[in-house]
Amino acid sequence: MKTLSQRDKRTLVLTAAAAVLIVGYFMVLEPALASYNALRSERDRLHSRLERLGRVQSDLGAARFGQMSRHVPVFDMPQAAAEQGVLFRDALTRQLEQAGIQVRTLQLRDSRTQRRDGYAVLAVQCQGRCTYRQIVQLLAAMKQNPYYVGIEKLSLRVDTRNREQMSFELTVFTYAN
């Protein structure tokens, strides 16, 4: 058996290395690249779909915001306590007058020591006489008061002599800085 020359050994080593590279490319690298390209195209397809859904969502969001703005109460950001209390009391007084409710007492209760979410709570207590229709009309219009936050107390007592009339006690509150 003949020994291989140095040149033949180099050729064999280079041929074996080339064979390993070619087999490695077709067995490992090409499937990995194909998988990578498939995943990349899937990602691009999903990304475009997500953008389309986002556009549809924003269009629906604008429509929903328009619908909600008719149902959600109007609210102005709280002012200083003294100013907010007067504004709230005056707006509530106008609403009581528009509903035709006779108010006996209307009192602004300032409880600055009681705080919710960093704001002082101001309450207006009122007592008087009304009909059921008038109190329902007031409650329906209450959300139009820009200073109104919520109702703390509402009690109704029907007059035993005149069943159409009732006395009420209402406490509504707002926030102030």
Give an account of the 3D structure.
This protein has three helices and four strands; from the N terminus they run H-H-E-E-H-E-E. The chain is α+β, with helices and mostly antiparallel strands. It has two domains: 1-72; 81-176, 2-Layer Sandwich (Alpha-Beta Plaits), CATH 3.30.70. A four-stranded antiparallel beta sheet has the order 1-2-4-3. Strand 3 (150-158) and strand 4 (165-176) form a beta hairpin. Helix 2 (81-99) packs across helix 3 (132-141). The N and C termini lie far apart (103 Å). The mean pLDDT is 83.
Core attributes:
2 domains; 3 helices; Alpha-Beta Plaits; four-stranded antiparallel sheet; 177 residues; alpha+beta; rod-shaped
Short recap of the structure:
The protein is of the alpha+beta class.
Structural class: alpha+beta
CATH classification class of the largest domain:
Alpha Beta
Q: Output the number of helix runs.
A: 3
The global form is rod-shaped
Strand order of the largest sheet: 1-2-4-3
Average pLDDT over all residues: 83
Radius of gyration: 38 Å
Total beta strands: 4
At the fold tier of CATH, the topology name of the largest domain is Alpha-Beta Plaits
Secondary-structure element string: HHEEHEE
Largest sheet: 4 strands, antiparallel
Helix content: 40-55%
Estimated share of beta-strand residues: 25-35%
Sequence stretches where pLDDT stays below 50 over 5 or more residues: none
> What is the total number of structural domains?
2
CATH architecture of the largest domain: 2-Layer Sandwich
Distance between the termini: 103 Å
The CATH homologous superfamily of the largest domain: Ribosomal protein S6/Translation elongation factor EF1B
